[in-house]
Amino acid sequence: VAKEAKAASKLPKPGELPASVAAMLRVPDGPVDLELLTTDRHPAGPRDKDHAAELMAELGEKMADLQERLYASAIGGGDKRRVLLVLQGMDTAGKDGVINHVVGLVDPGGVSLVSFKKPTEEELAHDFLWRIEKQVPRPGRLGVFNRSQYEDVLVVRVHDLVPESVWSARYAQINDFEQRLVDGHTTVVKCFLHVSKSEQSDRLLARLDDPTKYWKYNPGDVDERKYWDAYQQAYSAAIAHCNTDAAPWYVIPSDDKWYRNWAVAALLLESLESLNLRYPDADFDVEEEKRRVRDS
Ligand code: AMP
Ligand code: MG
Q1: Do residues 94 and 195 touch, judged by C-beta distance below 8 A?
Q2: Per-residue pLDDT band at 15 (split at 50, 70, 90)
Q3: If you ran DSSP here, which 8-state letter would residue 48 be given?
Q4: Is the per-residue pLDDT at 7 higher than 60?
Q5: Ligand 1: which of 99, 117, 124, 132 to mutate, most ligand atoms within 8 Å of CB?
């Protein structure tokens, strides 16, 4: 009992910061029930929007510093490492919001951002990973996939765009692909931005209430709401089948935008910190170069 009490006292409470956001939001092994992983929970982290804003300023500075080191060590030191943030989620879940408010905290020069849309004729003529492989970030970059290889087991599965025998083989193909990325010095951070169906409805209505948001509104998104349960099942399967140690899945409670942004930022920062990034040494004689500059 004493041991249990001690373990419980170590668990952070809402409003307290967890020792590791990755450990807190990592999907456990085994079947995934997205209904149990509620969309409005705040297991630990900022207590409210203002607290989140404070924390984001700190996280942003640290992230920007480490991202510069990542870039510098590739440019100046031949380091092959890179980071890939994969963003998935239902319409309005906040993929664009995370890009704006989290990825936007670092130097855009070191970011490679790709949005995957409905495949073109040319892309459809190739294997589903063809267009993805071409967009893998180069050394030193923070790659961001706004949608990804997972669409080929999500929208494709929900709408029967290929036979089941084809999409069901893709989980293993995705795992192999991600293992290759990791073997090639890529840290893969996969985030499912988890919102409730009613939060999506609120966000769609908010878009319709604001003429400056009409451009974000897509009438087709309302038709997709009919397939909500099928999407949740497809997401559960994709997350469970592809939750590998090499490239684990994180489910981000996303009904509160401030919590979502903080969680992804904290997760990304932890990934960058785990790389122990250092600025590369000069590959020239610094004193000699100072003299040459002065004399020039
Ligand atoms: P958005 O991200 O809102 O601009 O929309 C992009 C659309 O492209 C979404 O409706 C996705 O479901 C769709 N899409 C992305 N990848 C695929 C894919 N591999 N197959 C079919 N549709 C896709
Ligand atoms: Mg959309």
Answers
A1: yes
A2: confident
A3: S
A4: no
A5: 117
Q: Is the CB of 117 under 6 A from ligand 1?
A: yes
Asked whether the predicted pLDDT for residue 8 surpasses 80, the reply is: no
Work out the burial of residue 78: count CB atoms within 10 Å of its CB; fewer than 13 is exposed, 13-18 middle, 19 or more buried. exposed
CA-based torsion, 113, 119, 169, 126: positive or negative = negative
Q: Are 17 and 53 in contact (CB under 8 A)?
A: no
How far is it, in rounded angstroms, from Cα 290 to Cα 47?
Answer: 50
Pocket flag, ligand 1, residue 155 (CB < 6 Å): yes
Q: Mind listing the pLDDT tens digit for each residue in 25-70?
A: 999 999 999 999 999 999 999 999 999 999 999 999 999 999 999 9
**C-alpha 227, offset from chain centre:** 24
Residue whose tokens read 């706004």: 146
pTM: 0.95
Residue in 15, 17, 86, 27 with CA at minimum distance from that of residue 266: 17
